[in-house]
């Protein structure tokens, strides 16, 4: 009896030892696997951090606008040699990224991996075109004469050191202007200049805003006024800072801008390209395709984009005609638009009245409706400011990194009697909430890598040799926000709803006009006529917009293509999930992902669908393989190591 028991005991002990050895080996393998996964994750995080740090150091203005003041006394270099350096640097980052085993990363890290690869690859691919519009860094929409306000206002002026950094940056600005002139001379040499409509306003813009003013009247001198007066430093030091500021503006910056203006007038304008579109360049059609792909983050051809535009024009026109029927208006959409433009009910007399109404719309009307379709609503302040030049109807600047300043909604208050009030609600939805400001607020409060939540929206002229703005994602969302306004009940009457459709059809017309100008050799007059026939915009506003499309090939197409993709993804999720579809959660997934290419956004929504299906095990899909293996190990250990009863 004892022997039998002892034999069983010996057998059990041997079996236990064998299992312990197996489990030990299994445990070691798990530890090694976990270490490998941790190493790859750490390598990715380290690479992402290093990449962002390099970008801040390489582009000091971007660092400043991001709320990082380490480089406030520097400016980015704009030379062909620097173009080569940036491409080479990014090739190295891609090489190092390729050494990380993507398969060993968790889902969120795989997303970060994919986005970074696409982000860096975009600049490397765009290098093929670095001697095209990258050589034209000044136009009537952007450049040092236009960006100076934001360049100044993004800087902190809280210490004497802040002022000294600013003065050093001002001292470097003439050298930057010389670099720009050198690039534009290269564009003239290669026959790749802008069209005249992109450039002929520049001399007037420079004289009006910079060279025809005294130094203390320029925007460059603004920080030396009230902000310096309130600074807690001795008065003699304030006087010294003011004197230095006045000197560098009068003797450095204003002469440099005068030289730039003279160069534009005497050398550049006589050599502008003859065709409105970039198809007039050598390899121009291929160049346009590259610009379009950069903005859309899809492989849509110019022909497909053009046809999609016409399809949307037909659909939206039908919706507009329904409104005309409800209003019992007898006539065409064009007739209705003309009637609005001659009706004083739809205009304000003064800029102050226009600004006051924007405040009512953004601070009172819209916020009460947001909880209907959103949850976890972020609270980050925004300001509404008058635009300093007669540009688009409005534009938005997001808060800096760590919300270092409020978001800014700039509105065009010039010539208020030409600004139809029926468009104001749609514009506010687009630029503020739930459009760009809401989008930026979510993005900045999420735990995203810095380079993903803090994009640099500059150098539109340089496309496709630039890091992505993810235009289709951000502008697509903002246009989708205009449509959400109808769903939420924000539009107060049929006239504002007509304004919403007028805004949407404007974006549809952009698909047709942009491809028309740059791929199908349209004239400027042809594009203007298209907008006159289908939108409520003033003729002056249409001309400015068309000149914008001529200047920035492909950019205007991103809005509608991005919006349509978000709507398609919503329908895909709703059809797949039925009653389990949660619109608020869908919006959360879109916004908390942050700016990504549209193809990657689709993988995010596919994951949401998988996790939300009642037949699927969301917990299983969300647990990593390492965690599952550890749970199995613990189960086996408990089973065999427990004392026998």
Mind explaining what this structure looks like?
InterPro entries: DUF885 (IPR010281). With 645 residues, this protein is an all-alpha fold. Among the domains are: 61-78 and 137-190 and 200-271; 284-567, no CATH class. The protein contains 25 helices and three strands. A three-stranded mixed sheet has the order 1-3-2, covered by helices on one side. Helix 6 (160-190) packs parallel to helix 9 (235-268), helix 11 packs antiparallel against helix 18 (494-518) and helix 22 packs across helix 23 (598-612). The longest helix is centred in the N-terminal third of the chain and has 57 residues, at 2-58. It starts with a helix and ends with a helix. 40% of the residues are buried. Residues 1-8 and 616-645 have low confidence and may be disordered.
Features of this protein?
645 residues, mainly alpha, three-stranded mixed sheet, 2% strand, disordered C terminus, DUF885, 25 helices
Q: What is the count of β-strands?
A: 3
On the 0 to 100 scale, the average pLDDT is: 90
Radius of gyration computed on alpha carbons: 29 Å
Terminal CA distance reads 19 Å
Quick gist of this model?
Among the domains are: 61-78 and 137-190 and 200-271; 284-567, no CATH class. 64% of the residues lie in helices and 2% in strands.
